[in-house]
Design a protein that fits this description.
about 260 residues; alpha/beta; Carbamate kinase; 8 helices; binds adenosine-5'-triphosphate; binds magnesium ion
């Protein structure tokens, strides 16, 4: 008897940036509630249509000011251990805002803290991935975030939510980074619809005035290019209001990152 082959469901990693969901330049935690609510509603529509999502949120003003204050991006200074607690505290507050929205929308979502799921060994990242896979298999959408993680050499390291897809290459087909501007902009501030590695020189003058302990837009583009070179479909788009997520996933907004 011939068996019908089920089409494989694709899995999309969507990272909503701290620049979008918080007042990042404020230097103290402040959420952009309307943006978060709009985003969560769209997530529900997409998951309900049968697409697997792995969600992640950036830290924005809930993480970068504290990580910078305690120098956590340079490793752990024993005098600054409380910085781990302070940063983790505020990140949890931000995750809870998302969870509350998802709960009201009745969308099953579970938070995974990278700090309890992975660490950096002297040989690279070590990840306990099964809980994420099992959540997906059971129809519960994982929500991760940029986080402070233990590091065998430096004490702690910061993992950006822009780095997490490198650890999920086996399960993720597409990667979408959402930021607070329409995508990658050139020196004149115009959107670059398609970006190849050789286009990087067009960006130099506008780049990076923000406080981002993980390197801001320049690092995001560098990582996006590597992910594209690994065969993933990658896009950097803007998120301001409802509809922007669908537009990005349909490839009609933002910057497509192209391997060659
Ligand atoms: N050439 C550029 N193209 C696009 N964005 C740019 C450019 N130059 C600077 N930026 C800024 O980079 C920011 C996006 O990168 P950044 O790492 O700060 O945000 P994020 O990743 O959303 O935040 P987080 O790390 O907290 O999640 C945007 O706020 C944007 O204004
Ligand atoms: Mg960033």
């Amino acid at each position: 008897m011939s068996q019908s082959i089920m089409p494989l469901q694709k899995t999309i990693y969507i990272k909503i940036g701290g620049s979008t969901i918080t007042e990042k330049s404020l230097g103290r935690p402040k959420p952009r509630m309307k943006t978060i609510k709009d985003f969560c509603k769209e997530v529900k529509e997409i998951v309900s249509s049968g697409t697997n999502l792995i969600l992640a949120h950036g830290g924005g003003s809930y993480a970068h000011p504290f990580a910078a204050k305690h120098g956590l991006n340079k490793g752990l200074n024993p005098k600054e251990r409380i910085g781990v607690t302070e940063t983790r505290f505020w990140l949890t507050e931000l995750s809870q805002i998302f969870l509350k929205e998802f709960l009201e929308l009745k969308l099953p979502v579970i938070v995974f803290h990278p700090s309890s799921l992975l660490y950096k060994s002297s040989k690279g990242w070590k990840l306990c991935f099964s809980p994420i896979k099992l959540a997906l298999r059971n129809g519960i959408t994982p929500l991760l975030m940029g986080d402070i993680v233990f590091d065998e050499e430096k004490g702690v390291s910061i993992i950006s939510a822009d780095d997490i897809p490198f650890l999920l290459l086996d399960v993720v087909d597409e990667i979408l980074f959402l930021i607070d501007v329409p995508g990658v902009l050139d020196k004149k501030g115009n959107l670059i619809p398609k970006l190849h590695r050789e286009d990087l020189s067009r960006l130099d003058e506008v780049l990076d005035l923000t406080t981002d302990v993980t390197g801001g837009i320049k690092e995001k583009i560098r990582k996006a290019l590597i992910l594209a070179e690994k065969g993933k479909k990658v896009r950097i788009s803007g998120y301001r209001e409802r509809g922007d997520l669908l537009r990005a996933l349909n490839g009609i907004s933002g910057t497509e990152i192209i391997a060659k």
